[in-house]
Amino acid sequence: MAKPIPHGTPSGYVYHKCRCEICKSAESERKKRWREANPDHRRKSWEANKARDSEKNRLWREANPDYRRRHYEANKEKAAEDVRRWREANPDKIADLRTRGNHRRRALHREAFIEDVPRLEIFERDDWQCQVAGCLYPGVPASLDVDWPNPLFASLDHVIPLACGGTHERSNLVTAHLRCNLTKGARESIA
Q1: pLDDT at 81
Q2: Where do the record's region annotations for Disordered lie (predicted)?
């Protein structure tokens, strides 16, 4: 006589191929515990197979062009809730995305060259020091710890303004206090 399937154990699911809810739940718990005990495994695996997985995903998306739209339509409320929670948890990223979008929009309007530049990269490159000629607060670092429109709020300034034919790229962007930037306007210095 055959040995009974040990329901509720990982072996019930893996070795005996049982797909009842009890066995599926036990296997799910086992996998969860393993992932928690081996957090680096997924990251290393992802890094090692990034190109292959990327190509595989691209091919699948091409073969299933309507899937994302159907999935979104079926899960609109959940998607909206997920976005709302992410926005609440990441206000700094939202501010950065909004700023980058505004720079891109203005540059496109003026038909200027646009490079996708994270503002924190520029702030850190400039050591948070205002680079505007004639700075109103010399030696005082710009900051994101103060609320806009505080005069010391960190902002990006175009050395050659977009209005004067400048581009939106790393070599034309510098850190500026908000007040220095607004005072400078579309000129090359405050003075």
Answers
A1: 94
A2: 27-57
